[in-house]
Design a protein that fits this description.
The protein has helices at about 1-20, 20-35, 40-45, 55-90, 110-125, 135-140, 175-180, 220-235, 290-295, 310-320, 335; strands spanning about 125-130, 135, 160, 165, 185-195, 205-215, 245-250, 255-260, 280-290, 305-310. It is an alpha+beta fold and about 350 residues long. The structure holds 3,4-dihydroxyphenylalanine (DAH). 3,4-dihydroxyphenylalanine (DAH) binds next to β9 and β10.
Length: about 350
Amino acid sequence: MKDMLESIARDAKAALELATTKQELENIRVKYLGKKGELTAVLKQMGKLSPEERPVMGQLANEVRSAIEALVEATDEKIKKEELIKKLKEEKLDVTMPGKKSALGHKHPLNIVLDEVKDIFLGMGFDIATGPEIEWDYYNFEALNIPKDHPARDTQDTFYITENMLLRTQTSPVQIRVMEKQAPPIRVISPGRVFRSDAVDATHSPLFHQIEGLVVDKGITMGDLKGTLEAFAKRLYGENTKIRLRPHHFPFTEPSCEIDVTCFKCGGKGCPMCKGEGFIEILGAGMVHPKVLKACGVDPEVYSGYAFGVGLERLVMFRFDIDDMRLLYENDMRFLGQF
Ligand code: DAH
């Protein structure tokens, strides 16, 4: 019996040394230590031994069991460690593999130019004011000296919500809202969306953007208007840009003008872009009409001011040489990807 126990101990040790997986280890454990295992089979024969031999063999059997159990545990640790090493090797990160490129978005061309315009005016001490896109008739027309029967309303037909409430046709109503709330000195620009019931084509859209400007203080003259807008044009289109003021008419300014800048395509020589003129119109402006100042509670005998309105789409189209306004709204990545 002693020989049998010793050979079990030897065999188990040899088998355990070869085990490399958890399953193999479990099979060995069952084979030697399990209820129907080899050690149990030997112990069942204890009854055949003499009373003197029994305790000696019993102790030897216990020692063999303990030794095998300890070996099983050690082997289990070893297998776990090996499996971890193997796993780490398999999951190794190859930093030389080419990465997946994630597409970064960027500003829309309308916002590229709008941010530049804001920067320029903020740098000159202007604030940014906002107003609602759904506006009262009073702010959009009446207070701007455009009464109900005024022909200027024909060129600015829009979407009416009620008889007195509409989608604003211009950012000029923000002038009124600012003057109602704030006493001069006033220096603001107000960018925003405007609406007109125009059919869509290369130069028209029922929704577009304007940037309004308003300066009111004591002693403001047409010279301030010209100097400020010239500085603006030079910053936006380059130092060599010249501006030209042409007399015009707006109901809310007197006198009024349109302002042209030298054509950036030909530099003023005349080309198809400027239709041979050398200049391109970019905005409307003028000295705020005394009636408008009065409607807002500003005394025209004490204060004067100038105002202007720029079409953002026009600025963007000239700047990037875009010939169709619709491209700005279609969200076509082939177009947007170029900026
Ligand atoms: N609101 C005018 C338009 O939509 C543009 C404009 C012209 C605004 C002259 C002004 C201005 O403030 O003084 O056509």
